[in-house]
Specification:
The structure is a homodimer. Chain A is of the alpha/beta class. In chain A, about 35% of the residues lie in helices and about 15% in strands. The longest helix of chain A is centred in the middle third of the chain and has 21 residues.
Chain lengths: ~400, ~400
């Protein structure tokens, strides 16, 4: 028997270029299912829900909801907030007040923990509610799923930038002879590894890739850059922000600060390596730090990724209405050539706070590049481009009115 | 009477996304004119020419030459080299040996100085040769021309990135509340200013723009960021790498090194400002340093810019064959709505080493944003997208065989 009641969807953690495809999938599929009940948004994730910042999405313009499919950022706003035991009573009170029986939470590892805590809280309080996690992360580090919505687009953008700046470096190697690109991904090297998609010829960028899954050695790094430089006259390095030495110490500066989930905040490893190249090899280097462009570059997003993100949102609603709860939607690759991917499910209890790292067998023996198996895995995920409406020379992104339809 | 003899084209300085459109325009127009003489490339600019690194472009595959129109980097390779008086004899000897009567040099301020020195050297030696400068620079700082090929594409890319990362910041402002984007442009703020194209609504990113044309004050900066942060809860800052204080001292670290032209090498102003925000206001900040992606992002280049870059190359050949020499091709805007732009010319003697800065009247009274007049000037330059052939999910850029057809 299907539970009668309203739905809520919310987003959490760092956005991806396609996170709004998932939110749009949830909203549009809920409308299509025509249950007679409303769908709300928790504005700014669970934090907004706890603060009663909830809007009725059925009052939004349908064209604006549809435009979420080509809009980066978190269209419903996001938060980084770890649910506390003291939040449980408030949460249940809000679910009761608005008769919320379907809870869709769109995020990464930490957000799946939030979804799981919400599931447990509802269960403990005897509040019947279907809780479904909708995956997203450019880090690609959620377990049980073949890959994560958001990764393909970030991978496509980073690979394009590496190809372009690699061609730039090759063609004017008389000044800055080493380019270092710093990629996001604290503990998992998936996105850093994706830079390898740029390379068509053995001498092309990137030449060296340093991943957080294996220890980093400064002296080995210097020797490897120097060897490439001696052969080609220039060298292109891609490095994860989270690389550590064999003692487990971060190579990046600024390890003192931690976020709400206790994760160390990193920045500057690219500059550390740039300074190493200049001081130890004595050649000029340049560091490109793409930062948040990696998770928001909808202007060059992967259509495969965008479509899968939408599919995950759609499937979340179908699963919930089929009586599923306490699970996250997953992506299951059925074949690689032709590429075919369907949805599956995994228990939130198993997903919460678990990070899936790049398999060590996909890292080469020298620990400075990825294997062809990784390329075969990643290539299908960057295929196709999203059709973007343009206005005044720039992508015409939507901004929802997040004050409209606010619940009292 | 038209001079009988071969042509050479070469590229110099930092590439732009569309610099190869100009080289392609020169090559294809030379072929179309069908003079019966060859067109060569100086591989790696004037440095390559002096070293005799010259290839016969008529031996390249025409499809590959055409593919330069969608390929970033310097397709003919580039250099940063200041011609010395001692180079003149060698230069003339090479021109004589290969009967080079047409010299097309594709570059920015420094490169136009090289073209001018070449023009003077040929004249002094009594070697009749038509010397034409073909403009390019993302910095947009060449004098006499309304704008420079390369600027529109860099402006489009930076504006797209600011819009996207601005939406990202706005939608998840619970951690890094200030985003700083560091833009290229040592002494001229054109590209930094172009970030303003991203803003559609008054509260949207970017909120503050700091330009090298006016003095920068750290205390004023802190007060301005704090004021925006208090109103919106976040703040997006775009800053030129070349900002200085009222004593003329660079705000960026690392001012000790100079390049071949004596220009100070800058990096890190974004990090300086990030640290200021964190230490003086006590809120977390993030710095995006796009680096060389700004000058190579063909994946989101401006079609207007690409077409004008090609037109400048075409026009250079026509001007040379019409007997012009010692001039640079310029762009003259005939109307803004509809946008119409034609080519003109300016003497190399007046162009060489002169930097055109952003007019102070296009900077607001508070010195922290640009005026609507700048937006009206810049908007037409970012219109349209280049049609990119894709392969395996990424742009299919060409690589010429720069060994093929090498002259002896």
């Amino acid at each position: 028997m299907v539970l009668k009641g309203n739905a809520i969807v919310a987003q959490s953690g760092g956005p991806t270029a396609v996170i709004n495809n998932s939110a749009c999938g949830v909203i549009e599929e809920w409308m299509r299912q025509n249950t007679g009940d409303k769908i709300f948004a928790g504005v700014s994730g669970i934090k907004g829900i706890l603060e009663g910042n909830i809007i009725d999405l059925t009052q939004q313009d349908a064209a604006k909801i549809a435009a979420l499919r080509h809009t980066p950022g978190a269209g419903l706003f996001s938060c980084r907030y770890k649910v506390q035991p003291s939040d449980q009573e408030k949460m249940i009170e809000i679910f009761r007040r608005h008769n919320i029986r379907y809870f869709f939470y769109n995020g990464g590892n930490d957000s799946m923990d939030t979804a799981y805590q919400t599931y447990l809280a509802a269960k403990a309080a005897g509040w019947e509610m279907q809780v479904i996690g909708v995956p997203k992360t450019i880090d690609n580090d959620l377990p049980f799923t073949d890959h994560c919505p958001g990764f393909g687009s970030a991978a496509k953008f980073i690979a394009a930038c590496v190809r372009e700046t690699g061609i730039d470096l090759e063609s004017v190697s008389t000044k800055n002879k080493v380019t270092i690109l710093e990629a996001m991904g604290r503990n998992a090297g998936w996105l850093t590894a994706a830079a390898a998609l740029a390379r068509r010829f053995p001498d092309e960028a990137p030449h060296l890739i340093y991943l957080p899954e294996v220890p980093f050695s400064k002296s080995k790094f210097i020797a490897e850059v120097e060897a490439i430089y001696k052969t080609l006259g220039y060298c292109y390095v891609v490095v994860s922000e989270g690389i550590r030495d064999d003692q487990g110490e971060y190579i990046a500066a600024g390890t003192a600060q931690k976020d709400a989930f206790g994760h160390v905040q990193l920045s500057g490893v690219g500059d550390v390596l740039k300074n190493l190249v200049e001081s130890e090899i004595g050649i000029k280097a340049r560091c490109n730090t793409l930062g948040t462009t990696q998770r928001s570059a909808m202007h060059f997003a992967s259509k495969t990724d965008a479509d899968e993100a939408y599919m995950c949102g759609v499937e979340a609603v179908r699963m919930a209405l089929a009586g599923k709860t306490g699970v996250m939607v997953t992506l299951e690759r059925e074949s690689n050539s032709p590429y075919k991917c369907v949805t599956g499910e995994a228990p939130l209890s198993g997903v919460a706070n678990v990070e899936k790292k790049l398999p060590v067998e996909w890292i080469n023996a020298n620990h400075n590049y990825v294997t062809d198996e990784f390329i075969e895995y990643a290539r299908p995920l960057i295929m196709g481009e999203v059709d973007l409406p343009m206005k005044d020379g720039l992508p015409d992104y939507v901004r929802l009115d997040l004050q409209k339809g606010r619940l009292l």
